[in-house]
């Protein structure tokens, strides 16, 4: 088990890689402040990861929210809980700091995970070197921890040259944010910049585009029959679903990055009976809304022509997150952020990913947006999810600097 003392040593060692800012440098106090929040961030990360807070687990989400709320209220933020829009459950957490400047920035992270109640006990969080391995550690509890560190550091150096900084901790991101979508839109529309605190990617990478997401559902109805006595009288819905699963693989487009991945395939509920019902669900991802339209049409065409006579298929596509395309506005944010990374001797790089997130909802309002500003990590949606605590200082420093610049002059990006 990694001790608190060893964690402090790790943070100190990571700082040795950063250039020392000269005495009196205007950013020296900020670097010291984000460094000082390392031990507290370690403790908060351990606390929130120790709680099961899968999407829909209102009790677990409240417990995580309470920990964040205590930290944020201690920083002087106005904190309120916003109930999720039904049928989603669990409260979102909104925290606001008001300053004396011009710029308004929205920070977004999420409290929910893809795991169920009891999974944390079955897969206990633990330290592995500088990595904290635990369910939801990197995706995305480290995002909330990073935000707390940054707001604490700004308060410590007495920086209030911003109109307002809002932090939204979402309760339903992992299923497309149905309980917070309108809240995100409303908050983003009133902001000059939206920054999503999903995990950063090694090394010093931020995200400039994400695919949108959708769920393709196919329901199969056949005819039941005795599997041994007269199987020929049945119409096997499960077999048709298996055929369809293979056919759907052809709907992806490697050239545009569109993917169609079968996640759920089930049929029948007992042996000795030809299954009369089956269901298939596939994950669809694309950088283009038009590609979603094409997949929807192609799937409907496949459903209209089943391979087994007498089986009927109902096909539907439910869209979750919209695509977040790479834009010139994002490039301007990247250029500015690159200069901030250079202040501590690091080089920013960018990437585009297939996963979807709240940044797409925020950017859909026309507000400039950027993503991947949390601590670096990996293993999302697996039992090996981790946050790299050694990246807290550079990530928190750059995020704080961006908040300072936009707060002072929102037109400067």
Topology diagram in text:
Blueprint: H1 4-15, H2 28-36, H3 38-49, H4 58-74, E1 78-83, E2 91-98, E3 104-110, H5 119-122, E4 126-128, E5 131-133, H6 137-156, E6 164-170, H7 181-189, E7 193-196, E8 205-210, E9 212-221, H8 237-248, E10 259-267, E11 277-286, H9 289-303, E12 312-319, H10 328-342, E13 349-353, H11 359-363, E14 369-371, E15 377-378, E16 386-388, H12 392-408
Parallel strand pairs: 3-6, 3-7, 7-14, 8-13
Antiparallel strand pairs: 1-2, 2-6, 4-5, 5-16, 9-11, 9-12, 10-11, 15-16
Helix pairs in contact: 2-6, 2-12, 3-4, 3-6, 6-12, 10-12
Describe this structure in words.
- This protein has 413 residues and is α/β, with parallel strands linked by helices.
- The protein has 2 domains: 297 residues, Aminopeptidase (3-Layer(aba) Sandwich), CATH 3.40.630; 107 residues, Alpha-Beta Plaits, CATH 3.30.70.360.
- It is built from 12 helices and 16 strands.
- The strands form 4 sheets. Strands 1-2-6-3-7-14 form a 6-stranded mixed beta sheet, sandwiched between helices. The protein has a 4-stranded antiparallel beta sheet with strand order 4-5-16-15. Strands 10-11-9-12 form a 4-stranded antiparallel beta sheet, with helices on one face.
- Strand 15 and strand 16 form a beta hairpin.
- The longest helix has 20 residues.
- It is elongated.
- The two termini are 44 Å apart.
- The N terminus is likely disordered.
């Amino acid at each position: 088990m990694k001790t608190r003392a060893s964690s402090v040593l790790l943070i100190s060692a990571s700082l040795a890689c950063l250039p020392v800012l000269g005495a009196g440098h205007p950013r020296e106090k900020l670097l010291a402040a984000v460094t000082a929040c390392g031990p507290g961030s370690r403790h908060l990360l351990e606390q929130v990861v120790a709680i099961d807070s899968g999407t829909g687990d209102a009790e677990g989400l409240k417990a995580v929210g309470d920990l964040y709320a205590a930290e944020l209220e201690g920083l002087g933020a106005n904190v309120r809980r916003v109930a999720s829009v039904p049928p989603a459950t669990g409260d979102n957490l909104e925290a606001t700091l008001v300053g004396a400047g011009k710029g308004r920035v929205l920070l977004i992270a999420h409290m929910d995970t893809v795991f169920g109640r009891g999974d944390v006990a079955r897969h206990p969080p633990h330290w592995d070197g500088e990595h904290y391995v635990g369910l939801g550690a990197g995706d995305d509890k480290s995002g909330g921890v990073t935000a707390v560190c940054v707001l604490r550091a700004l308060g410590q150096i007495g920086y209030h040259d911003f109109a307002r900084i809002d932090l939204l901790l979402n309760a339903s991101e992992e299923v497309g944010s149905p309980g917070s979508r309108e809240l995100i839109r409303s908050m983003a529309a009133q902001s000059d910049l939206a920054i999503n605190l999903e995990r950063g990617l090694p090394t010093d990478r931020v995200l400039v585009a994400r695919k949108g997401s959708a769920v393709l559902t196919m329901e199969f109805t056949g005819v039941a029959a005795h599997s041994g006595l007269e199987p020929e009288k049945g119409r096997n819905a499960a077999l048709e679903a298996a055929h369809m699963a293979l056919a759907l693989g052809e709907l992806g487009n490697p050239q545009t990055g569109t993917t169609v991945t079968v996640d759920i395939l089930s049929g029948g509920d007992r042996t000795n009976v030809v299954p009369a019902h089956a269901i298939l669900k596939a994950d669809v991802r694309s950088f283009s809304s038009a590609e979603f339209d094409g997949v929807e049409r192609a799937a409907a065409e496949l459903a209209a022509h089943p391979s087994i006579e007498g089986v009927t298929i109902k096909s539907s596509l439910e869209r979750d997150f919209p695509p977040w395309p790479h834009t010139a506005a994002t490039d301007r944010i990247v250029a500015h952020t690159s200069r901030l990374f250079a202040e501590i001797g690091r080089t920013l790089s960018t990437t585009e990913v297939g996963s979807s997130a709240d940044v797409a909802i925020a950017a859909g309002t026309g507000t400039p947006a950027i993503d991947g500003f949390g601590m670096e990590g990996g293993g999302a949606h697996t039992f090996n999810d981790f946050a790299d605590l050694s990246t807290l200082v550079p990530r928190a420093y750059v995020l704080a600097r961006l908040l300072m610049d936009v707060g002072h002059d929102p037109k400067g990006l």
